[in-house]
Design a protein that fits this description.
CATH architecture of the largest domain: 3-Layer(aba) Sandwich
Number of helices: 10
Distance between the termini: 11 Å
Shape: elongated
Number of strands: 22
CATH class of the largest domain: Alpha Beta
Largest sheet: 6 strands, mixed
Structural class: alpha+beta
Strand order of the largest sheet: 1-2-6-3-7-21
Amino acid sequence: MEELLLKINSLAESYKDYTAGNLSKLVKIKSLSTGEQAMAEELKRQMVEAGFDEVRTDGLGNVIGRIGNGSKILAFDGHIDTVDTGNLANWTDDPFSGDIRDGFVFGRGTVDQKGGPAAFVTAGRILKELAFDRDLTIYFTGTVIEEDCDGLCWKYIVEEDKIIPDFVVITEPTNLNIYRGHRGRMEIAVTFKGISSHGSAPERGKNAIYMASRVCLEIEKLNERLTSDDFLGKGSVTVSEFVSGSPSLCAVADYARIHLDRRLTWGETKESAVAEISEIIKDMDAVVEVLQYEETAYTGLRYGMEKYYPTWKIEEDHHLVVRAQEAFAGLFDKEPITDKWTFSTNGVTINGYYKIPCIGFGPGNEVLAHAPNEKVPVSDLVAASAFYTALVYYLSE
């Protein structure tokens, strides 16, 4: 194995410019959720060029590359959509320049999350060059609509494509650490029904804004007493939107609605989170609901799911984690840091719903995700492509 690891490191380094160049091409293509078609075509082209055994696009628009045809299945996942740029005045460079300089690739998506797919394309090329022929099927998925609805893409892959891996590696940014979980999340709306009256006589009505405001203050208190987990940390809840309506600006508001961002730690569920809010509004004319997502993909397919994204983690002594730690140590001659994400990933569906063991390992630092002046070190891309290749061999032993 030592000789093989030296070869993998050498090949990953030799493909440094190739990997960075591929990422630069991807970054130059704007690819917001449901608008990933051009990005998908470029990723497909790169997979074909790298010599993948099969490359296709599924009905939702996910790009699926395959190498090998073994009985066990390993998948490397990276979403190919990004958030928008925000205020361009906060950017030093063009967000879609894809510039390569000073040891970095610059632009929107370099960290979140096109760097992972660029690295796994190189890993696929290395596997083909090494004539990988062990009893393992490796899928490389460039997934869509993750930024709008994390995990929706994998709902389609499992339920419609019928691909059910034994292991998944999520290539979201981990700063080259091994991640084994993160908090879940859900989107909750609370709608308040008031009664309008003339603004000159508010006592004749029932003001929905006042009702909602009292609930907001109770939710602030709820956040302070939510449970915590030794690994994943504390659950949280915050009001992220407040809207209201009335017959006129001279009338008592008869409608209000708040949107809650709820982060779920280990042991918290959809039911427990809804029950907490239901208790707060129990004496009010108000309704709490978990929201739904449904949009039309670039393929024309309309698809959706509930906006409940379960908490997930796997134990540090799990076979997948242990083999990943061994691959890392063998490649880089140091012990890896094993940790968790702050944000949410496709793991909410892969492990949260389907209980498929998964870990995270990706180039770039997550603090740059969704931030201006996003950039990823080329050295991270090299390390990631080497790690993905080595892990294939460690899991196929």
